[in-house]
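Course assignment 3, question 2. Fill in each field.
Student: A.L.
Task: Predict the tertiary structure for the chain below.
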Amino acid sequence: MTVLYVHELTVNSGTGDALREISFHLDAGEILGLIGGAKAGKTALCRALVGLLEPPSRISDGKIFFENRDLAALDSTALAEVRNRGLTVIEEASADDLAAARTAAPRILAVASEVPAESLQQLMRLRDDAGTAIILAAREGRTIVPACDAIAVLCGGRLVERAPRDTWLTASRHPYSQALQADPAPDGAAAITGCPYRGPCPRVGAGCETADMRLQLVEPDHSTACVRWRDF
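Answer field:
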């Protein structure tokens, strides 16, 4: 059962878009790894989900559905009620905060910072015991990937790939994902048009500067924003 559905979410930071046209869903009991480099948009996304963006950042477009309500359209009072009812964000993954989350057993938990390896079992028990859906943010993902059911990759404020964990590890169809799995990858840059990873990308070619960055379906449950994914 889907507990969170994000559609075409765009967050403006005051000087530009921190996130552009982000769409994904989260199922009950699913652990989603949110992977991307510095300024990829991981923290902005987690904050946007629960209305904790710091001004001048704001949601400028899109929808966030939780419990049949569009959170992007709610005021601060209503969002506080939603947070109290079961949508929790932890910005620093301290042992105390993770323990408190396990006690509260929210429907959705988003952790916006790297989770220590020794804390992953605690989060997996929360998923198993309470059916909590969990978003784990990480820069490269080596620690969190084994605990995840699916992986979503952010680059320059864009969602560039989403796939089941094993598919992502063995059959990724985005060069940035492949770079993240090898060595520390160069970060992408925010781009109004085209692929945000085209600067350092070894597969850059015709169309990358003007590509439509919406996800394309590779196979069921696997999508990529790379316009050249059929070439590799």
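Instructor remarks: Helices lie at 42-49, 76-85, 95-104, 117-130, 165-171, 175-182. The CA atoms of residues 120 and 147 lie 7 Å apart.
Grade: pending
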